[in-house]
Amino acid sequence: MVSTSLRRRCESLPDAVFAKVLLLLPAVEIARSCALVCRQWRDATQDASLWNELCAGSGLRELDALRCMGGWKGLFGTVYGLNLVASPHFSRIHHIEAEQMKRQALRTWEPKHRLIYDRICNVEENHDEPPSFCHWAAEGGSVFQRGGGDGVLREDPPQGCPPCPAALDKPVLATSYEWGGVQQLIGLHTFANKFLDTSPPLIFSIWFAGRQGSPSVFRVQVLLQDELKNVIHSWDSGDARATESKWRQIKSIIYGYPQGLRSIVVKVAGKSMIHGSGFYGAKFTSVRLHFIPFTQVKFHLAEGQGPEQSVVYY
Fold first, then answer.
1. Which parts of the sequence belong to the FBA domain (predicted)?
2. pLDDT tier at 147 (50, 70, 90 boundaries)?
């Protein structure tokens, strides 16, 4: 809550000085909180030069802003506000919706995702329904079966633990007694090479939990690839112990990687540490990956999210 005296002092500042003050704040606070304080603050947050400054060093051009609805502010939201991960909660895609997706052309700054047959088990199967689709593929060789093994099971709601606080009414994936994993390829063909070749920082996050009475482990990898699908950089969470019946979020900033980013692969896996059958392994959902401007890196580093480490939130 901004005090009246502070607001009046800010109102007395020249516009250029006030804009420099706003640049000291996280972009999300500028767009949300600051715009609600008063008319002057709202007008300042709409200033194109402010959002241009926030994009400094990104490779984004004036022409990109002119082509985007909302100018520099709209471009900022399009590039940095988008979750690059499709189906972050592993939802099934109905065949009719899938056919519509296949006919849609990608827009500028829109990631490309593979649309594949859904091979993830569901608690209730109906084999009379047409096949559904998904953006997540099984890691090579995974067997999907009710007995478990290295398969994964879609649960809605989750079994043996409460719903994820970040996705109360969304599905989760449960794993079994062997490493069961899924992966997603994210193509960045519609992103300008000039932007990608600045090696823009990324923020990755995911929620995970264990089932009651079943110790389990969880692991996630983010692979950055060049034009030829060679891995130029990778981030690995390592084996994280999943807390029984309690959801946690793992979050990390990925930056300082080599030039040449053209696609990203996200891999997520888990397993039970004691059970030899059934889906008693780690659960996960709510996957998010998005670019952030260089000007915002300092705010994430202040939380301790270094390039080779992650922060686990309880």
1. 113-293
2. low
User: What pLDDT does 142 receive?
Assistant: 44
Would you give the distance in Å from CA 247 to the centre of its chain? 17
**pTM beyond cutoff 0.85:** yes
Length of the chain: 314
Q: Which amino acid is at 270?
A: G
Q: What is the 3-state secondary structure (H, E, C) of the chain?
A: CCCHHHHHHHHCCCHHHHHHHHCCCCHHHHHCCHHHCCHHHHHHHCCHHHHHHHCCCCCCCHHHHHCCCCHHHHHHHHHHCCCCCCCCCCCCECHHHHHHHHHCCCCCCCCEECCEECCCEECCCCCCCCCCEECCEECCCCCCCCCCCCCEEEECCCCCCCCECCECCCCEEEECCCCEEEEEEEECCCCCHHHHCCCCCEEEEEEEEEECCECEEEEEEEEEECCCCCEEEEEECCCEEECECCCEEEEEEECCCCCCCCEEEEEEEEEECCCCCCCCCCEEEEEEEEECCHHHHHHHHCCCCCCCCCEEEC
Sign, CA torsion 29/30/31/34: positive
Residues 202-229, mean pLDDT to the nearest whole number: 96
Cα–Cα distances in Å, from 19 out to 2, 6, 25, 61, 222?
17, 15, 10, 20, 36
Q: How far apart are CA 51 and CA 311, in angstroms?
A: 28
Chain-centroid distance, C-alpha 292 = 11
Domains of the chain (ranges plus CATH)? 4-80 (1.20.1280.50), 95-313 (2.60.120.260)
The percentage of the chain sitting over the pLDDT mark of 70, rounded to a whole number, equals 86
Phi, psi of 185 (to 5 degrees): -100, 130
Of residues 123 and 49, the one with the higher pLDDT is: 49
Residue 314, exposed/middle/buried by CB under 10 A (0-12, 13-18, 19+)?
exposed
